[in-house]
Amino acid sequence: MERGDVIEESSFDSEADGFTSNKGHVSPQALDWGTIMKLAFQSIGVVFGDLGTSPLYVLPGVFQTGVKHNDDILGVLSLIFYSLMLITLIKYVFIVLAANDNGDGGTFALYSLVCRYAKVSLTPNQQAEDIEVSNYKLDLPNRRLKRASFVKSMLEKNQITKYFILLITMLGTSMVIGDGILTPCISVLSAVGGIREATSALTDNMIMWISVAILIILFQIQRFGTDKIGYSFAPILTIWFIFIGTVGLYNFVKHDPGVIKAVNPMYIVKYFNRNKKNAWISLGGVILCLTGSEALFADLGHFSVRSIQISSCTIVFPSIVLAYFGQASYLRKHNQDASSAFYSSVPKPIYWPMFIVAVMAAIIASQSLISASFSIVQQSLALGCFPRVKVVHTSSKYKGQVYVPEINTLLMVACVGVTLGFKNTLQIGNAYGIAVAFVFTITSSFLVLVMVMIWKTNIYLIIIYALTIGLLEFLFLSSVLYKFVDGGYLPLLFALTLVTIMYLWSYGYRKTYMYELENKVSKGKLMEIASDPSIHRVPGLALFYTELVQGISPIFTHYVANVPVLHSILVFVSIKCLPISTVPLEERFLFHRLNSHERGMFRCVVRYGYKDARTEWESFKEVLVSQLKEFIRNDVLMSSELADHDKVANVDEEMVQREVRIVDDALNFGGVVHLMGEKEVMASKGSSFLKKLAINYAYNWLKRCVRQADEFFMIPRKRLLKVGMTYEI
């Protein structure tokens, strides 16, 4: 759809009946190889820190009580190797990254992808014109349509399923944010704790306070953005990967090259036969080797699929595998060092250089989940599932690179609290494992849905995925839940708090929207107001903001009843987020004329993707006015096509010029005035106690605590008039 296109009236007065799409999985705009390689280098400093520093604490976490049998080392090493191969490399690098939403990743990106294929969104603000946005269209393969149609129909018809999908999405999002809290704690504590190998003078409390100081500094530099942080951190992480890979190869050759036998999965079977229940419990330690895999997908919006795949396969995966094989080789000869496997296996001449790089790498490791938290909050915020917070776009080149000050402060306070509360990595490891396992299983659940409904993958391949990767993740989840009381409750507590906040906000938002939809101003009432001689028209362009996209908000009649004045040009502006990552600027504005040419009343829907930055007011005004004039021209010309073109051509041009002149006069003599509803939401009489508690207290408290709508949309306050109204919902 071109700029200023005329759209049908029905799309503004009622819900779209439904929509179909005819394109499939869209890859992001092609990047040149130079940019891809730059992003691949940057991604090492942002995405892989957590995954790369896991050798610091995995084997000590598995062998908490020491090595009982020398071949247990081979069994654990085999588990680590195949877990990395199946989940990190095959699942995330080659499958999950392909399920991106126009280059963006994370739980909400998967949710928005599903929302485009099936009407599962609980807010009924879809319009028929949405699917005409270029990024919205998706290729749908023409095979196996019956199974995909059945799943789509099941999702759309069952309200409980819609709520379940939304809650699972919120849970996955909350767990990623929980990862963002736990990753810095365990990484920094593990690295700083390594100094004990050189000196015993440092106590647990001293290590704890050093870690707290490092964490505070880490969160203070987030404001500089992923671009600068990535270029600063990438060289250090590259050195780290070279170090652990080289030391791993050295230990492998020097101590016991026979650990190569661990590539035989039979050692896993023997390990479980020998240790029974204890082997199953140890999976809670093994899963820590996968921490950070979820960041590959959640951080995708900061980079690109190809860049992450290149850095994964060329540097990250080989180095990590060598590190684990080297530690295992060392432990085969030195069972007693299991509690400090990483630092004990480092050759003494390079201990201090390795320690310094390890501390720096551990600090950087936190970056992957911090950046992922920012991205995933931005997505959930745009889709109406998170309270309004400030999103700062830190790069003009890459839209997905963002910084969220409120979330950064929340993560910092929580990290410091966890570090002070737990003081060591063992209990934090138990908590961390639960968060990671939940994210894995939720991502796999959405991935199966994408395979069936969107990709239309062969059913046998889906079954193979479920019986291998899916089963392995279920085993990990069952194991970490066993350690619930030993710190495992922490991420669930975080998740419960965040899901409650997100659901309350989403619930209040939906109820408010439904009230406006049910009480919208009828077309007849609008015409009556427009033609009422007692309502004065004054010069100026008034922008009346509302979230309702199907009709006019009831706040408008409340405004007219109290202020019987209308400006010469009145535009009802609805700012709406589509379930896609970005909307091209030329497709962002949709206009519609609400009455005759003389009345000067228009409807404008401004559509954003969840990665799009809100533009500053001046540039927004310029684009809106420019496209309003273009719409007027297109509208008049379209009307003339119904008549004899030769007879009305001159009249049409005069009409266009007259209407454009009215817009110019409104701007010159009256300027722009902003009108916005200030809604007080209350539960209606007869509502249940829970509903009153949720709406009257919880939702309204959240509204007061977060950024107000005019701040969020960057509306200048000097020419802003708020209209108060109470909604009983």
Automatic annotation (TrEMBL):
Every K+ potassium transporter C-terminal domain range: 539-729
Naturally occurring in which organism (per UniProt): Fagus sylvatica (Beechnut)
Coiled coil spans: none
Alphabetized InterPro entries for the sequence: K+_transporter, K_trans_C, K_trans_N
Membrane topology, as annotated: Multi-pass membrane protein
GO cellular component: plasma membrane
Name of the protein: Potassium transporter
Main location per the UniProt record: membrane
Job description of the protein: Potassium transporter.
Molecular function GO terms recorded: potassium ion transmembrane transporter activity
Keywords assigned: Ion transport, Membrane, Potassium, Potassium transport, Transmembrane, Transmembrane helix, Transport
A Pfam family that the UniProt record links to this protein: K_trans
